[in-house]
Amino acid sequence: MDVIPAIDLLEGKCVRLYQGDYARSQVFNENPADVAKQWVDQGASWLHIVDLDGAKIGQPANLKAIAAIVASVSVPIQVGGGLRDGTSVSQLLNMGVQRVILGTVAVEEPELVRSLCAEFPGQIVVGIDARNGRVATRGWLETSEVLAIDLAQQMADMGAAAIIYTDIHRDGTLQGPNLDALRELASKISIPTIASGGVSSITDLLSLLALEPLGVSGVIVGRALYTGDISLKEALQAIGPGRLQDVPSNLGDSAFA
Q: What CATH number does residue 209 fall under?
């Protein structure tokens, strides 16, 4: 199972939110590229970047910071936040991002997701952020009537490479992941599930590792890494180095140097 450090970008800085609340942000570092290098130096094989400003306004807003991260590390990067049209997706992939994460558009324009999956096979991931089992959109500011499991099944059928599942009530709280929801979702789709939200300890990671046979192939860890509750080196020793799965073949071996 891949342990993937998260770097959340707000106004060009590395921050963490509490339960997705923009008013409750904490700045951890003003240079996100330095943070990226730190995680890679400690063994990260993937990085997860969220453009929080982009998620709110509906288009990428931290491209300078993302470009700096891409230039500073050699591991694959996935980016989400505000990607609601083909132009934005192409822009990031052309910058050297390996996978893009679509969220709001999966609910509002599912056929666009289908076409992007066909155009960029293996590089489109769908982020499903759930509040009480229903999908939240537009930077978690709105909650739809769409059930998370229904959307996951639909996106898997449309060719998404993976589903990132976030329980909003657990995100940034260090209260542990929602194992029941993850187990149910992973067991009902044929593509990998990546867990996100609430991870606070090595014990949480081992609990998620037990779900790997169901298809939980990775876990995104945010606040716990920044507070020191989890050491990335210790996590990788406990969980393993990851599988670097679903990486587009055009990256070449140099991507993992």
A: 3.20.20.70
